[in-house]
Amino acid sequence: MTTVLITGCSSGYGLATAQRFLDEGWDVVATMRTPRPDVLPASDRLTLLALDVTDPASIANAIESAGPVDVLVNNAGIGGIGAFESMSMSTARELFDTNTFGVMATTQAVVPQMRARGSGVIVNVTSSATLAAMPLAAVYTASKSAIEGFSGSLALELGFFGVRVKLVEPGYGPSTAFTSNGAERMVEIPSEYLPFAAPILDSFATPGEVTTPGDVADVVFRAATDTSDRLRFPAGPDAVALAQSG
Predict the structure, then answer these.
(1) DSSP letters along 86-154, please?
(2) Residue 175 confidence (pLDDT)
(3) Every domain of the chain and the residues it spans
(4) Entry pTM
(5) Quick check: is 193 catalytic?
(6) Active-site pick, 13, 140, 172, 193
(7) In this model, does residue 224 exceed pLDDT 80?
(8) How confident is the model at residue 178, as a pLDDT?
(9) Is the pLDDT of residue 32 over 60?
């Protein structure tokens, strides 16, 4: 039986991804900061674990409890929007702690067992913000772009040992909890920026094509089971369009 460990499964992309792997017959270790048994149907192939990707002890405990992991999906992430000029460095560090260093730390915790087995897949979920410049998201984009570079290098490094690394790049998903969580880090926009920012914020509220949790779950599963050297997998119609235009 194949086992996948997914971070950030309390809602949104992570929850949909956990359900997709369950539907495919996998053993699923669904992690979240505070496990909620109500979010997924009971199954003898489902294990819920507490995991805070910013806490080294939490990571170590979760990986030990999970046992052998064939696929790691680094999905946990937080949003943050606003003018960079008014963003505090504490908020910037918060974004990097989860979106960048949390991914790196969780990955580092599973690499030894995958390397020793000579197999495994690491799927890092980033954002379509890495595919084209997005205003009012400079630090968020930087935190996700760092993982793009990290993953490309790691794919070469671990490929020698038979371990694959993949990137899934979701488009804009206004219906996800991730988007609402980002509102907690919506920094105040200085009045000087309002003529520039107002139409952008309006467009966030009335987007065109968007990405659904199901879109991302489908692409994560495809990336996890892909045996080619392909690294990047855009997810959602808007992300696919950006990738093709680039």
Answers:
(1) G--HHHHHHHHIIIIIHHHHHHHHHHHHHHHHT-EEEEEE--GGGTS--TT-HHHHHHHHHHHHHHHHH
(2) 57
(3) 3-245
(4) 0.93
(5) no
(6) 140
(7) yes
(8) 44
(9) yes
More confident residue, 126 or 245: 126
Closest CA to 189 of 108, 84, 89, 39: 84
DSSP class of residue 157? H
**CA-CA-CA-CA torsion sign (36, 42, 46, 47):** positive
216 vs 110, 133, 143, 187, 234, CA distance in Å? Answer: 23, 21, 19, 27, 9
Q: How far is Cα 131 from Cα 57, in angstroms, rounded to an integer? A: 34
* Residue 142 CB partners (closer than 8 Å, separation 6+): 96
Q: What is the architecture, at CATH level 2, of domain 3-245?
A: 3-Layer(aba) Sandwich (3.40)
Residue type, 51: L
Contact 7, 51 (CB under 8 A): yes
8 A C-beta contact, residue 125 and residue 168: yes
HSE-up (13 A, CA, CB side) for residue 19: 16
